[in-house]
Each structure stands twice: as structure tokens, then as C-alpha cells.
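Design job #97: recover the sequence.
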């Protein structure tokens, strides 16, 4: 049987570089996301995590290096290109429209129009279909919301995060990137988001989790990508490394093994 590390990573980067004048945001960074895993990306503020993730999501075009999907080189000029390849990102600010209902938010930017003249000429939306499909997506991820017709502004913070995740899972068939999904949530709602990540992984969709919450990282991740000084410092296993050791790797107080430095995890 083929070992996981012999299979081309679902999403990969080699030697990414991004400079802003004299400031180097990404310093020859590497990245590997394996099929069906939750890969956490951790690092101190200013380590370059956000710039790396933006490059992988198409929100930033690197100056050098390459991005590959399934071993094939890809070029993202913008987020639309990345989304066309099945990469969806859930940002910390969620990008939901509170005044609109849940179904409309799930299909935001991908609205389904009615068939015939009502859709082509009058541009009427097929709300029954959008509501039915939205309900199905919510059910698949075990999100307990009574009606997809209610407005997002009536939802709790955890439920709003759930709507954003459902939208990503509905259309992101390749990779889902989650940027600090529990940062503004309480304990109970954070637990709901962790459950969502488990549900996405169970569907076979790999997840990139950017988080400062080390306990959550250890709870949900299969491997941990430690980012430091604009590059990948190590990839470690939460089964082998402790929380304090990961923090030490983030700050440079501890050095990774050769295997961890090479990204073996």
C-alpha cells in the first residue's frame, strides 16, 4: 500500500517569495497539505502566516516560487482562480451579509436563477432550490438551524461561523482554509466549530486551520505547520510534540529535528 507521503500533496508550495519593498513577507516558504487531513498553521504575529495563506488562496500573487495541486503546477491570479480549483477560504470576518437569509448567504455570489425567461430575462432567483440545497448542506455538517429562511443577523456567532463554513464546504471540493475560526467565539461556540472541522474531514475534504489557539490546534489537527520568519520552520505531529514544545518552536527557543525541518511531520 502506498504511504501517504508518497502521494502528491493535495496543495503544495515550493520556494514562495513575496516582498514589499525592503520587507520580506514570505521568505522562500514551503507548504504541503495531504489528502484528508487537518493541517494547522501556527506562528507568532508577524511570522508571515497570513501572507502564505493569501498566496495559497489566490488573494496574493507571489514574486517567486510555485504552487501545485495534486502535483500539477497552478497559477492563481486572484481568489476566483483558486475557487475555480476548489479552494475555499473562511476568513475571520466571515464575509456574510447579516440582513440576508441563510440560503442567500450560502449561495452568495453563486445564486441559482430560475429556468426559462424568469431566470434569463427577469433574473429571478430559484429560492426554493437554494433553500432545499442549503438545508441539505446544513444537515450534512450537523448544524442545528431551524430554518434557512431566517436572516443571519438572528444567529449566534457560532451559527454565523457555521453558515460561512457551510458555504465553503458546499463549493470547496478541493481544500477549505479556515482563518482563526474560533478567535471571537466563546467556549461552547468554539466547540461547535471544532465539530464542524471534524465533519468536513469526515467528508474527505482537507482543511488548513490557521489558529493562535494551541489547545484547539492539538484537539483537531493531524499535523502542525510551524511558520517562523516568513518560512516553514517545521512540520510536527501533535502526537509526538507537546504544546509547550510547539510554542518553543514558534519562538525559536527550540530547534526542530531534521525530519520536522524537511516537512515530514
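Job complete. Output follows.
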Amino acid at each position: 500500500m502506498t504511504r501517504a507521503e508518497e502521494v502528491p500533496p493535495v496543495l503544495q508550495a515550493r520556494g514562495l517569495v513575496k516582498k514589499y519593498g525592503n520587507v520580506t513577507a514570505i521568505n522562500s516558504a514551503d507548504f504541503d497539505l495531504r489528502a484528508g487531513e487537518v493541517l494547522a498553521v501556527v506562528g507568532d504575529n508577524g511570522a508571515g502566516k497570513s501572507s502564505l495563506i493569501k498566496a495559497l488562496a489566490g488573494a496574493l500573487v507571489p514574486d517567486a516560487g510555485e504552487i501545485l495541486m495534486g502535483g500539477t503546477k497552478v497559477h492563481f491570479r486572484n481568489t476566483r482562480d483558486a475557487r475555480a480549483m476548489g479552494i475555499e477560504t473562511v476568513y475571520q470576518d466571515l464575509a456574510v451579509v447579516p440582513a440576508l437569509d441563510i440560503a442567500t448567504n450560502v449561495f452568495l455570489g453563486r445564486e441559482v436563477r430560475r429556468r426559462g425567461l424568469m431566470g434569463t430575462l427577469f433574473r429571478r432567483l430559484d429560492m426554493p432550490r437554494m433553500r432545499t440545497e442549503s438545508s441539505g448542506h446544513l444537515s450534512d455538517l450537523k448544524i442545528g438551524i431551524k430554518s434557512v429562511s431566517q436572516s443571519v443577523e438572528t444567529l449566534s456567532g457560532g451559527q454565523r461561523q457555521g453558515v460561512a463554513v457551510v458555504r465553503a464546504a458546499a463549493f470547496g471540493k478541493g481544500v477549505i482554509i479556515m482563518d482563526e475560526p474560533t478567535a471571537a467565539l466563546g467556549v461552547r461556540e468554539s466547540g461547535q466549530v471544532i465539530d464542524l472541522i471534524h465533519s468536513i474531514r469526515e467528508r474527505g475534504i482537507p482543511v488548513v486551520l490557521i489558529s493562535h489557539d494551541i489547545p484547539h490546534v492539538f484537539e483537531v489537527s493531524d499535523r502542525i505547520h510551524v511558520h517562523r520568519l516568513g518560512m516553514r520552520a517545521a512540520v510536527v505531529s501533535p502526537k509526538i510534540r507537546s504544546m509547550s514544545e510547539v510554542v518553543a518552536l514558534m519562538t525559536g527557543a527550540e530547534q526542530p529535528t531534521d525530519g520536522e525541518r524537511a516537512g515530514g511531520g
